Amino acid sequence: MTVEAFAPAKINLSLHVTGRRADGYHLLDSLVAFADIGDRIRLTPAAEWSLAVEGPMAPGVPTGEDNLCLKAARMMGGPPAAITLIKELPAAAGIGGGSADAAAVLRGLNALDERPLPAEPVALGADIPVCLRARAARMRGIGEQVEDVPSLPPLYACLVNPGVTVPTPDIFATLTQRENAPMPDIQECTEIEEFAVWLARQRNDLEGPARAIAPSIGVVLGLLAATSGCQLARMSGSGATCFGLYPSLPEAREAAAEIRAQRPNWWVAATPLG
Ligand SMILES: C[C@](O)(CO)[C@H](O)COP(=O)(O)OP(=O)(O)OC[C@H]1O[C@@H](n2ccc(N)nc2=O)[C@H](O)[C@@H]1O
Ligand SMILES: Nc1ncnc2c1ncn2[C@@H]1O[C@H](COP(=O)(O)OP(=O)(O)OP(=O)(O)O)[C@@H](O)[C@H]1O
C-alpha cells in the first residue's frame, strides 16, 4: 500500500517579529495561508527508512539524514517506509518547502497506519505546526501556537522567486529591531479589496534584512506591483519568494505570464490561497 501526501507552499501574508526568547528564537505573529501548488510525498512500507528526491526542484536538496522528511520520519518512529519526495517548490525560499515536506510525512505516516503524531512537532522546525494543518491560520509564539482565523475572502496569488536562496538564520541574525507591535485582530471581510487595505497596514518585519542580503527582492516586488489587478505585493517568510494578490485566478495567471516573459529564469506560479 502506498500513501500520498501533499505539501503545499506556505505563504506568510504578514509576519510580525514581536520579541526574542532567551534561547535566541524569535516570537512571531503571522497570518499564514496555503497555495494549491506544492511538493508531493509518497510513502510505501519497507524494511528500512529510505528517501528518494525527484522532480524539477530536486537538484541541491539534501537526500540524506539532514532532509527534513527523514528527520520527521525518525521523530514519528514506527514501522519504516520508503519515502519519495517530488520537489516542485524552490528550497530556502520562504515558502516552507522543507517544513511543508516534513509535515506531509507526518500526516502521511499517520494515514498509513494511524500511528500518533509527535507531541511537539515544533521541535522539527518553527513552521511545522502550521504546515501540519495546511489551512489559513494565525501563528504565534515561535510557531507552536496555531489558531483558526476568521474566513478570508477568496484570494489568488502570483508567487515569484528570483532564484536567490536566502538562509532563514542569516535573516533573523541581521534583524536590528526585534520588539515590534503584534498584529491587531484579523479583520473579517468578504472582498479582497477590503482585505488588502487591512493587510497593507500589516508588515513582514524580515523584508528589510532580506532585501539587504538579496536586493533582487526589491525588483520582484516592483514587477508584481506593476501587474494589472495586483492589490498588494509582499515578501513571504524570510524570502526571497514574494507574492502579489489578485481578485481572480485569471488575473493571477496573467500576472504570472507577464513576469515569466520578462524573467524566464525565475520561478513563477499562480495559485488560489486558503
Ligand atoms: C520565518 C518563518 O518561515 C515564518 O513562517 C519561520 O519562522 C521559519 O521556520 P523554519 O524554517 O521551520 O525555522 P527553523 O528551522 O525552526 O529555524 C531556522 C532558524 O531560524 C531562526 N528562527 C526561526 C523561527 C523563529 N521563530 N525564530 C528564529 O529565530 C533560528 O535562527 C533558527 O535556527
Ligand atoms: N525536504 C526539503 N526540502 C528543501 N530543503 C530541505 C529539505 N530538507 C532539508 N532541507 C534544507 O533546508 C534548507 C531550507 O529549506 P526550506 O525550503 O525548508 O526553507 P524555507 O522555504 O526558507 O523555509 P521557511 O519558509 O520555513 O523559512 C535548505 O537549504 C536545505 O538544505
TrEMBL record:
GO terms for molecular function: 4-(cytidine 5'-diphospho)-2-C-methyl-D-erythritol kinase activity; ATP binding. Coiled coil: none annotated. Residues 68-122 form the GHMP kinase N-terminal domain. It comes from Palleronia aestuarii. ATP binds at P90, A91, A92, A93, G94, I95, G96, G97, G98, S99, A100. Its EC number is 2.7.1.148. Catalyzes the phosphorylation of the position 2 hydroxy group of 4-diphosphocytidyl-2C-methyl-D-erythritol. It comes from the Bacteria. Pathway: Isoprenoid biosynthesis; isopentenyl diphosphate biosynthesis via DXP pathway; isopentenyl diphosphate from 1-deoxy-D-xylulose 5-phosphate: step 3/6. GO terms for biological process: isopentenyl diphosphate biosynthetic process, methylerythritol 4-phosphate pathway; terpenoid biosynthetic process. This is 4-diphosphocytidyl-2-C-methyl-D-erythritol kinase. The gene is ispE. Residues 200-262 form the GHMP kinase C-terminal domain. The active site is at K10, D127. Keywords: ATP-binding, Isoprene biosynthesis, Kinase, Nucleotide-binding, Transferase. It catalyses: 4-CDP-2-C-methyl-D-erythritol + ATP = 4-CDP-2-C-methyl-D-erythritol 2-phosphate + ADP + H(+). Belongs to the GHMP kinase family. IspE subfamily. InterPro entries: GHMP_kinase_C_dom (IPR013750), GHMP_kinase_C_sf (IPR036554), GHMP_kinase_N_dom (IPR006204), IspE (IPR004424), Ribosomal_Su5_D2-typ_SF (IPR020568), Ribsml_uS5_D2-typ_fold_subgr (IPR014721). It is an enzyme of class 2 (transferase). SUPFAM superfamilies: GHMP Kinase, C-terminal domain (SSF55060), Ribosomal protein S5 domain 2-like (SSF54211).
